[in-house]
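Entry type: protein chain
Record version: 2
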Amino acid sequence: MEQLRWIGFGAFFVSSFVIGVRLLLLARLTGKLPEFLIGIGVLGIGPFGYGLSMLAFVLASHSLALSATLMGSALLGATIGAISQYLFAWTVFRRDASWARAVVWIAISLLLADYVGDLVENGLVNRRSVGAWFWLGAGLRTAGLGWSALESLRYHRIMRLRTRLGLADPVVAESFRLWGLGAGAAFAGSLLGIMTRALSGHGAAEFAVLNLALSLLGLIAAIAMWLAFLPPAAYLRLVEARNRRAAALPSAPA
């Protein structure tokens, strides 16, 4: 069962790393903010946040100093990734909404405070997953993923209606759906971890069934992100063919 966990984690790690680097390179060429934000978000939450924290636990018995350095970097990466997720959801989907702007700046302020508070409360060596700061940070990071997923799926619905009228690119519309599914899978995995920790005091990976669920969610997130940002030609043809079939269907009467 432990091997299954590493399959999901490995797929999520590789996919997040490749996609995050690609998006940052693209943002450097185009100068566009959305690519930069989602690239930082993917790298911060995936390879740097989760990846370095796993490595820190593995190395804790060999070098406490190295483990502490990696854990501090992992917490910083997860914090920056979560901030980027909030900024992405706001600037792409809710730029003109005053409530969204307020939510984002409150979340950013709390995430920065949480980074310091969590380090003081739980330290970097033999960390404990307890205390108000731990729960605040975990909740904020999970909420950011959930918001991004919901906004992407909502916007996909809008884009899908436009594609039927020839007013939007079906591939772009599909990318919003896939990102919503990928972020949603990551949100589900994070929420599962929080709920398991709150109810049992243990991590979800310590339970065989939940370990398998985390692996499956990691695979779903990895596949969805890969198809959203690095779609193979065969998948693009499938999306375009599906859109042509949908456009050929008669519209339902009002």
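Comment: The mean pLDDT is 85.
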